[in-house]
Design a protein that fits this description.
The complex is a heterodimer of chains A (about 425) and B (about 525). By secondary structure, chain A is mostly helical. Helices cover about 65% and strands about 0% of the residues of chain A. Classes of the chains: A mainly alpha (about 425), B alpha/beta (about 525). Chain A: It is found in: Cell membrane.
Chain lengths: ~425, ~525
């Protein structure tokens, strides 16, 4: 053995024709484009919380500049900027602080109110608006963490609201049971709708993004059609709205008549806890995450990829459907074509902002609800168009999608940098025994 | 060109990757940089290539101090680097890749592709290998892609060529060819820095050997130093290179593969009528040049690819048609050939990876809820047992060095009672110290009475572990031979020559060795 240095060097295989079989690992790129897309999605959806916070701050700053820019007082002051430059700054400062403080008063706490109830009513309103958003975003996040981009939360919300609402107004069950059955109906509606996309992906490889987007349209027009049928409309009326859901199927108010806050908020908390448990403490969640992170290794470890994809979509859709049910049984009480608003799309943003983590989503949902509620008050109080709020929401997503941009602005180090170093000598410690 | 590094120090936070390293590479010399994975070899070369800036120390070219702000400076100064993972554009042709970054143009800014083609042909001819300038890179085998990398460096007049673990991805044949090219380059006056942890290669090709351990130069050696001596320097303790395993005590034959035939997606036969038996307490190794059906064999056994014909019987039960889950549950331990793709979830922690295919078992979960305590205890136990170098059970597995990642995969698969153990390339990209350890674990599993099937393209490993050797060529088993079969004969069989003919040819034309 000692006089024979290289096994191959002495073997007469040199100059033999190359085997026709392909050489594995040959392409210089390695990962397929789908792998790259999946890893990009994972980075955007599960990066650090810090970037989310900074992204929001940046969006507020830019939003402030826009508020100042559209304010007529500021524009007027800009007209004589060179004679009295301080006027412009004062006007701009006033306009931005007034707008944001109106937004705060509208969304959180109004110190000018006569009673305590009136003072905190904005906060309860924010919580009410945030409720379905949080639940639907939890659903989107389950998809994210399993590597699936469920764009179809909108359609699943609609189906959940439709089924949950139908149970609510068409069936007449005992108190307690009725609400439960209606919520389950909503869950089923969303689960089935997303399950279609999951099944198609698992069986035929049809990409879930395209299928779920198309199913959004189908859901919307399915609801519009249903609202023309006798089963879904008030007898004798040709309005495209359903009868109101029975009292027994409504989510009870939590604080009394002065606030719309209802038991849906508790459902949202329970859903967040459930998703936390599912993703970090259960075997199914372990597999969801494994498949999302490395489907090849999961398959080799005996996980059925197609079953997991269907399960992920069903879970994701079930949560979105629950959000729809909560929306109709808690606040809307009546089915109409616009029942979902832009809930399903906002949920995607909230899931991104919350980094696909239940607590993050809970906070992001409240923030989003607050922007929505506060924005309307701001428009009424200061005349600042509510569109500014939409711009802020859009900017948040934009900055989250580009963490290097946020890091550059705030001079933060890149947490992935050491990973790029080709050789990083591992510290020579034995973790467990040390 | 003479290259000298003086007192190079580079740290990442508290980690000192390079600690006052001195290195002199004379012109026309192959200087091997030998060290375990994570010893700091690649960091040093990245400093030299301008990818990292050194905290301390200086780089001298022909006794003149130079600083490199980035790879561009290093390239301009005549330093070329061939990375372990190739830096090629897969959809470009060879000539396009070679000209990328310093494109020659004709009038009106048109690319002068002909000049690049000529350059490629010229360089290939000078160093005596074949390279079609118009071949698209992604269609080329790995060994040829590496040649493209070398030509790319030479086309920019590199006087110092850094080869970072160049043989890690090559078959034995391709390794031979690379060594030939390296010698040609050296004779033409190019200085070569050859980074590796493979002892045989170092001794075959190096003029000077510098050994690095934990960021420091621990000594230099001449190429005629004994392998055990080099290995001990590398790992800092005595290493036994020969396994010295006891003869097998084969028991009952419990694993039978009969007429297994597998087609690939395109419908061509990749596994052709393969049959063999495996007894308890026996290791059968599968030898062959990469791409001759070994991967397909392992995947078919696990149930990842359904065979079109044949049977796989384990203790009387037919495994054909079972899902990977059912095969694993039937008591098969499986180590896939590519650990980072198929063996581990890189984002998952070490403890999660250690139970990747076991979470559903009662030991680690109950009623669908994970038993985190049991998972942590298992991780602590395995980390200790397999000497996995990690910051702790909660470290991401993707951040471990290759050898430690491989230990995680083996630890997982060997952590339960097995009826069959199948491992592909169990030590690919793993350093000497870990190879010894992993081989001993595999033999221990055999001695427990488990039938063991090892697939490896490293002839050393095949011979070291085998009780019997099955040689594959183009999807067929050419023959099953005893472990003491001469390497010449194995080499011929790997090229498709039947056993009797191979023995005859080997006797007629004995090879002299290197």
């Amino acid at each position: 053995m000692s006089d024979e240095i290289l096994p191959g060097a002495t073997s007469p295989t040199i100059g033999m024709p190359q085997p026709e079989a392909p050489t594995p690992g040959a392409p210089a790129g390695g990962a397929t484009s789908e792998d790259r897309a999946a890893s990009m999605l994972r980075r955007i959806a599960t990066g650090e919380i810090g970037v989310s916070v900074l992204a929001f701050v940046l969006a507020l700053v830019i939003g402030g500049i826009l508020i100042a820019a559209v304010d007529p007082d500021v524009t007027k002051a800009a007209g004589y900027f060179f004679s009295r430059p301080s006027d412009l700054l004062t006007a701009a400062w006033d306009s931005v602080t007034q707008a944001y403080s109106a937004m705060f008063k509208g969304a959180v706490f109004n110190p000018d109110a006569a009673t305590f109830q009136q003072a905190i009513r904005p906060l309860t309103e924010t919580m009410t608006v945030a409720t379905p958003l949080i639940i639907a975003a939890l659903g989107v996040a389950v998809g994210f963490r399993a590597g699936l981009f469920n764009i179809g939360a909108q359609g699943q919300v609609i189906l959940g609201a439709t089924l949950g609402g139908y149970v609510g107004f068409a069936w007449h069950l005992p108190v307690g049971l009725h609400l439960l059955v209606a919520l389950v109906g909503g869950i089923l509606g969303g689960a089935i709708w997303a399950g279609i996309a999951g099944f198609l992906r698992a069986r035929t490889g049809a990409h879930e993004v395209i299928v779920t987007i198309m199913l959004n349209y189908v859901a919307l027009y399915l609801l519009s059609y249903l609202l023309t049928t006798d089963a879904f409309t008030i007898p004798g009326s040709n309005q495209p709205t359903s009868p109101g859901v029975d009292e027994s199927a409504q989510l009870p108010l939590l604080l009394g008549d002065w606030s719309r806050l209802n038991a849906g908020f508790i459902v949202a908390i329970l859903a967040a806890v459930f998703v936390w448990w599912l993703m970090t403490r259960s075997v199914i969640g372990f597999r969801f995450r494994a498949v999302g992170s490395n489907p090849h290794a999961s398959r080799t470890a005996g996980v059925s990829i197609s079953t997991t994809i269907v399960l992920v979509m069903v879970t994701s859709g079930a949560l979105a459907g629950l959000a729809g049910a909560v929306q109709i049984l808690g606040t809307e009480k009546q089915l109409s074509a616009g029942i979902a608003g832009s809930l399903g799309f906002d949920a995607i943003t909230v899931a991104l902002l919350g980094r696909s983590r239940p607590l993050g989503i809970f906070l992001a949902g409240l923030l989003y609800g607050g922007l929505d509620v506060g924005g309307r008050v701001m428009e009424a109080a200061t005349g600042t168009p509510i569109d500014i709020v939409l711009v802020i929401q859009a900017l948040v997503v934009l900055f989250i999608a580009a963490p290097p941009l946020v890091r550059a602005i705030f001079h933060l180090p890149d947490p992935t940098a050491p990973r790029r170093a080709k050789v990083r000598p591992e510290p020579v410690v034995k973790g467990a025994s040390a | 060109m003479k290259l000298e590094l003086r007192g190079i120090t580079k740290s990442f936070g508290p980690l000192v990757a390079n600690d006052h390293i001195d290195l002199v590479v004379e012109p026309g010399q192959i200087h091997a940089l030998l060290g375990e994975n994570g010893a700091g070899k690649s960091t040093l070369m990245n400093v030299l290539f301008g990818l990292y800036s050194a905290d301390e120390g200086e780089i001298l070219l022909d006794d003149e101090e130079r600083t490199f702000e980035g790879p561009g400076d290093a390239l301009a100064a005549g330093i070329g680097m061939v990375h372990q993972h190739f830096m090629l554009v897969p959809v470009f042709t060879v000539a396009e890749n070679v000209m990328l970054g310093h494109e020659a143009t004709k009038s009106a800014g048109l690319l002068d592709l002909e000049a690049a083609r000529t350059r490629v042909r010229e360089l290939a001819a000078r160093f005596g290998f074949e390279l079609d300038p118009d071949a698209v890179v992604e269609d080329l085998p790995v060994g040829v892609q590496q040649r493209v990398e070398i030509v790319k460096a030479l086309a920019r007049d590199a006087k110092v060529l850094i080869l970072d673990e160049p043989t890690a991805v090559l078959t034995p044949q391709e390794t031979d060819e690379l060594i030939g090219i390296m010698r040609q380059l050296r004779d033409a006056g190019t200085s070569i820095v050859f980074i590796t942890h493979k002892l045989r290669e170092v001794r075959a090709v190096a003029d000077v050997i510098t050994v690095i351990r934990r960021g420091r130069v621990v000594g230099s050696a001449s190429p005629d130093a004994a392998e055990t001596e080099l290995a001990s320097m590398m790992v800092g303790r005595a290493v036994s290179l020969s396994l010295g395993k006891a003869p097998a005590q084969p028991g009952d034959t419990t694993f039978e593969v009969r007429n297994l035939t597998v087609l690939d997606a395109a419908g061509s036969v990749v596994l052709d009528d393969v049959s063999f038996d495996l007894a308890r307490g026996e290791i059968l190794t599968v030898a062959g040049v990469q791409g001759n059906g070994q991967t397909e064999l392992a995947e078919a056994l696990l149930g990842l690819t359904p065979p079109i014909a044949g049977s796989v019987r384990l203790e009387g039960r037919d495994l054909v048609g079972l899902s990977p889950r059912e095969v694993l549950d039937a008591g098969v331990g499986f180590v896939p050939e590519d650990r980072s793709v198929d063996g581990l979830v890189g984002d998952f922690t070490v403890e999660e990876n250690l139970v990747l295919d076991l979470v559903h078992t009662p030991a680690y979960s109950r009623g669908g809820a994970l038993n985190l305590g049991a998972i942590r205890r298992n991780a602590e136990h395995r980390i200790d047992e397999f000497d996995i170098r990690t910051q702790g059970p909660a470290q991401a597995a993707g951040r471990l060095s290759g050898g430690n990642q491989q230990k995680v995969v083996l630890a997982r698969e060997l952590s339960r009672p097995l009826k069959l153990f199948v491992a592909s390339q169990p030590t690919r990209g793993v350093d000497v110290g870990s190879i010894e350890f992993l081989h001993r674990r595999i033999v221990a599993e055999r001695d427990n009475g488990t039938p063991v099937l090892i697939v490896s393209t490293e002839l050393d490993e095949v011979v070291e572990l085998a009780d019997r050797i099955a040689v594959m060529y183009r999807g067929r088993i050419v023959g099953i031979v005893p472990a003491d079969t001469p390497r010449d004969v194995l080499g011929l069989m790997m090229a498709g020559v039947p056993q009797s003919e191979a023995e005859q040819q080997a006797a007629e034309h004995p090879t002299a060795g290197l």
